[in-house]
């Protein structure tokens, strides 16, 4: 009879361990699901931050480009005005010379 009690005790212990194993498996699955959800949240936040930084960087580039274009335009207009100022007297001289040659 003592052997039967030992078998019952071992069977009971096996059921206990199987229950604990099942509980541990469920806990592990729950923690894994939580970890996946957290990873997805972190990834989503990171993607949003990347998109925000990209928009910010694009705005900075656009702003700098506009400043560079305005400065280049201003310099080109200044050079054009300077050249026109230098060319005007020479143009007047050229017209006067042509008129002298053509008109008596």
Give an overview in words:
This protein is mainly alpha-helical and 104 residues long. It has one domain. It contains one helix and no strands. The radius of gyration is 44 Å and the shape is rod-shaped. The mean pLDDT is 91.
Q: Tell me the β content.
A: under 5%
Order of helices and strands: H
- What structural class should be given to the helix and strand makeup? mainly alpha
Helical amount: over 70%
- The domain tally reads 1
Overall pLDDT score: 91
Q: Care to count the β-strands?
A: 0
Low-pLDDT runs of 5+ residues are none
Distance between the termini: 150 Å
Q: Biggest β-sheet, characterized? A: none
Number of helices: 1
Rounded radius of gyration (Å): 44 Å
Shape by Cα distribution: rod-shaped
Structural descriptors:
single chain; 104 residues
Please write out the topology:
Elements: H1 2-102
In short:
The protein is an all-alpha fold and 104 residues long. It has one helix and no strands.
